Amino acid sequence: MEIIKTSELVYRYPAEEGETSQNALDGVDLTIEKGSFVVVLGHNGSGKSTLAKHMNAVLTPAAGKVLVDGLDTAEEENLLEVRRRVGMVFQNPDNQIVANVVEEDVAFGPENLGVPTEEIQKRVTASLKAVGMEKFADHAPHMLSGGQKQRIAIAGVIAMTPECIVLDESTAMLDPAGRQEVLDTVQYLNRERGITVILITHHMNEAVYADRVVVMDHGKVAMDGAPMEILTQVERLRALGLSAPPTVQLLHALRGAGWDVSLSALTVEDCADQICRALGA
Amino acid sequence: MLKDITLGQYFPGNSVAHRLDPRTKLILEVLYIVALFSANDWFVSYAFLALVLAGAIAVSKVPVKSLVRGLKPVVIIVCFTGIINLFWTPGETVLFSWWIITVNLEGVYRAFFMVIRIVMLIMGTFLMTYTTSPITLTDGLETLLGPLKKLRLPIHELSMMMSIALRFIPTLIEETDKIMSAQKARGADFETGSVLQRAKAMVPLLVPLFISAFRRADELAVAMECRCYHGGEGRTKLRVLRYQGIDYAAFAIGILVIAVIIALRYLNV
Q1: CATH class of the A2-226 domain in this structure
Q2: B167 and B195 co-located in one domain
Q3: Chain B positions in Cβ-Cβ contact with residue A99 (cut-off 8 Å)
């Protein structure tokens, strides 16, 4: 079953005066399966964020179509349904928290949807639990760390019972610990709750969590496949302005020096294993 | 430095006054103001209202000291009102006359009661803001003014704006602090020089602050839309305000106070 399907999606930002703009998205055909964990990679200006914004109708296509659960995002009357199904978490945690109290913020989505009060309370408790922030229900958001704020933002999305969460560079402004918190949370939601996760990032090593990696370049899908398949193509990635994870780079360098190692190591442990094996042999 | 600014004047607590519904407190506040201004200009009425205020302060457990401290910024207004009333009240019993200045007994009484009235008004208002968090107050205001929506007044939007403003105050203060440090690191001087120079020094602080505030507003609007915000229509609430027993009791007391004040006015004591 597919949750999001784009076909020949084209988008062009309005041109600044005196400049001609290029297509930010230039014929993207992508089908996202329900329950999958997709990481979208790409260098700055590759169109990955623009693509993300099409997935819940923040932007609507200039040409082509985006279907969310069969609903066309270009249709005005589908707007609320599309946005309920696909939640979005943005880059800056401060600019997406609406309320003064954590639980009020999580309740914001369901409140907008007109969910009855008792049901909202249940959802708020459940969502905070799902992101491991139940102890902070009555805290003020500005007292929390970046990672915690992003988890609140995720809880706010989950409270709308979405099918899919899009994280638009949500880890970019966080410190390593905060990034890990967010990644652990979305991984849990994907595995235990079956929520489709689309993670837009430029951190290569976050692709490790995915079961599918899409690399964007110049508004087109440049590479699409399993993480192992994509991340081991060191040269190809470099040509697209990306660098392979450090473990793969190390093995690639060793291989260049004549070692007999395979590149398929995305974690440090696997990498060490490969080197040990080569040394032992 | 900037982080020390206290926002609002809310004293967290769990007294009866804290537990009252914000709507009750707003209505009682209005009743109290009406009582103050319709009170007979004579000692009995004001003594009675002072008693009521003292009772409310005792119930709220707000330290009297902080209520008095709240009066400081308005001292000038109070003095001004007092002086105006003292000298410009027409009357016959002249107590004191020199050059163009005349003070009469009516003026003394009037000034005295006016000052008392304003002081009590301010203390009463502070008592409400001290025992109600700004966000609860906004909530109460929205519900109370709800019927005005029928007149197409944007009540929900106003209260949403207010609560977002409250939410972003700490964020913007933090940002101001950051920009100040950044500009100081580049040699900006915010503390010395004449008033004009210091005002000019604020420009490199305010420009980035405004730009970033607009960007934030933009991002927040998109984020709110993504969470299906589409105005107040069909919106439900996590917390629904409900009147409890103490609210009805408080209303009863409020009506009693008004009744006594009106009675005193007719009895003219």
Answers
A1: alpha beta
A2: yes
A3: 135, 163, 167
